Amino acid sequence: MPDSLTGRLHGDRAADFSAHVSTCERCKRELDELASYWSKLAHIRITPPGTQLRARFYQALEAYEQGRAERRSAGWSFWWPKQLAVQFALSAGCLAIGLAAGHFFSGGNASADVAELRKEIGNMRQLVTLSLLEQQSASERLRGVTWSYRTEPSDVEVLSALLRTINTDTNVDVRLAAVDAVRNFGNNSVARKGLVQALARQRSPLVEIAIVDTLTDLRAREAIPQFEQILAEEDLDINVRKRMERALEVLR
Ligand SMILES: [Zn+2]
Predict the structure, then answer these.
(1) How much distance in Å is there from the Cα of 213 to the middle of ligand 1?
(2) Which tens digits make up the pLDDT trace of 215-245?
(3) Distance of CA 144 from the midpoint of ligand 1 (Å)
(4) Element holding 7 (H helix, E strand)
(5) Which of the residues 15, 135, 216, 235 has the least number of beta carbons within 10 Å of its own beta carbon?
(6) Is 0.70 topped by the overall pTM?
(7) Within 10 Å of residue 142's Cβ, how many Cβ atoms?
(8) Which pLDDT tens digit goes with each residue over 8-25?
(9) How far, in Å, is the centroid of ligand 1 from the Cα of 29?
(10) What spacing in Å lies between the alpha carbon of 149 and ligand 1's midpoint?
């Protein structure tokens, strides 16, 4: 078929070919299809490469190399929170075994051991949470927010890391999750004050609404002046405005 299309079939071979195609429906269909592609190919105009081609190629190559270098240097930090989680699980397991053994063999002071174990686990949870919240990847930081639920509601370091996340994280999903997580610290006046302050810094209506809802649920009356001040802004998002007006009704 290619030979026939390119005019390289001659004599008996050409006669045999056309005799076959005239009787074989399958070959005829295939030949027609190929012939149509063949003629269309002739219409494709070959454009010479633009003058920008070389520059664009080197730009792309540079971006690729930079990405590879960043991944390589990030490799270490991706690795270590996972390692921490494993260490955490192992240490917790060892402590539990030690505690059980100590209790069994010596009949010693079990309640002091339990307190020690709790403290130890609390420290490790805090460490995992804080290090995950510092990661480059947004999904790792989300995991950090999830881990924060396992820390003590009195953990000020975790609380301030969450507030920092709400104020500075570039990812809206991470910020939203952090607002939810701060609810757990609602009894702490630092948490409520932090949320009030974070409200002024937000540029995303979604996060603003989440903060307003959280403050309303926490019955944070200290938010009232801030709400009033923000409501005075003319270019305030309409949904945020409605939510805040409702919140003021509840809080007053
Ligand atoms: Zn055939």
Answers:
(1) 74
(2) 999 999 999 999 999 999 988 999 999 999 9
(3) 66
(4) none
(5) 235
(6) no
(7) 20
(8) 889 999 999 999 999 999
(9) 9
(10) 71
